[in-house]
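Hello,

Our lab assistant flagged a job as stuck in the queue for most of the afternoon. It eventually completed. Since we weren't sure the result was trustworthy after the delay, we are filing this so someone can double-check. Below is the sequence as submitted and the structure that was eventually returned. Let us know if re-running is recommended.
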Amino acid sequence: RQTESFIGLNTPSSTMFVTGLMLIYHFDSFGLGEWVINPIFLSIVILVLSFLQVSELPMFSFKFKHTKWRGNEIRFAFLILVAVLLILLQEAAFSVIILLYIVFSVYAHLRGNKKAAELN
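-- returned structure --
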């Protein structure tokens, strides 16, 4: 079932998100250090990440069948945005990258469902 995508948020992505929060706290990135250790915020993060890990939501993978743009639009656009975010946000980029990964995956899933509905 997971040949071209993951089902649910994979553990390394979840770990990267939490590590990003730790880096934001450590470096007090953009003054968000105290905010990311707020118990309410952390409780919400735990619930959302736990839900995403066991959900049936397909998350795109980085399995390239070829290097052409067509068919890999999501992957290339995501990689370009990752590079920009790493340059602009530095250590604060990790959590934002995972949020972006989730948004891109939801978009790809919805776009795929729309195309499938149009074919029927």
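-- support follow-up --
The delay was a queue issue, not a problem with the job. The result is valid. The two ends are 22 Å apart (CA to CA). The mean pLDDT is 90.
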